[in-house]
Amino acid sequence: MLESYSVPCEAIVIEEEIKHSRFISFLFHCDSFDKFKLVLTDIKRDYPGASHYCSAFVAGAPNDSVLIGSSDDGEPAGSAGRPMLAVLQGANIGEVGAVVVRYYGGTKLGVGGLVRAYTSGLRQGLVQLPTRLKQLRYPAKLHCDYAQLRDVEHLLQQVDAVIIDKQFAEAVDIVF
Questions:
Q1: Given the DSSP bridges, would you call strands 68-71 and 52-58 parallel, antiparallel or unpaired?
Q2: For 33-68, what is each residue's pLDDT tens digit?
Q3: Is-contact 57 97, C-beta < 8 A?
Q4: How far apart are CA 18 and CA 47, in angstroms?
Q5: How many C-beta atoms surround the C-beta of residue 70 within 10 A?
Q6: Which residue, 22, 94, 133, 166, has fewest beta-carbon neighbours within 10 Å?
Q7: CA 144 to CA 147: how far, in whole Å?
């Protein structure tokens, strides 16, 4: 099980023209399916009239196989969304979403050409994508005497724990 992993700390946009079609690739932080839908809706609003809005996301840890999804959005099956998802999963970055907007330029690319076109911007963007380390935290409780409190707080600070609550009674209850 992963204790930490990289996540995007800001969004990035890569734009390229491939055989007269315009491809605009967006990479962004995405920690839930709802967040992904909001960003996709915003992109559709900001880039109206596009032929396709293909997408993929990994909303959890990089190796998560549950919080993932992809869409070909009308392109031939398996030519956009699935390859995009494979690129995201291979980048070893969690909580990442991708949308590629295509404005059709009149030249058919074929399935292989579509796969290359939809993944090209993502590959370029993932190299440039600023990330930060996400440390996984697990909730815990501790019961100690007043005399032990200083040592316990010091130990929790050493392991980068975050103290959420302290209750003072006959003894001290710490939630961290």
A1: antiparallel
A2: 999 999 999 999 999 999 999 999 999 888 888 899
A3: yes
A4: 18
A5: 20
A6: 133
A7: 8
Which amino acid is located at 38 in the chain? L
Sign of the alpha-carbon torsion through 106, 48, 80, 24 = positive
Is residue 160 very low, low, confident or very high in pLDDT (cuts 50, 70, 90)?
confident
How would you classify the pairing of strands 131-135 and 4-8?
A: antiparallel
Q: Which amino acid is present at 94?
A: G
Rounded to the nearest 5 degrees, what angle is found at the Cα of 62, between the Cα atoms of 57 and 63?
110
Residues present in the chain in total: 176
Domains and CATH numbers, the chain: 4-134 (3.30.230.30), 139-175 (no CATH)
In the chain, the percentage of residues whose pLDDT exceeds 90 is: 62
pTM (2 d.p.): 0.78
3-state class (DSSP) for residue 50: coil
Three-class secondary structure of residue 56 per DSSP: strand
Are 22 and 102 spatial neighbours (Cβ–Cβ below 8 Å)?
yes
Residue 172 near residue 143 (C-beta atoms within 8 A): yes
Tell me what the mean pLDDT of segment 92-105 comes to. 92
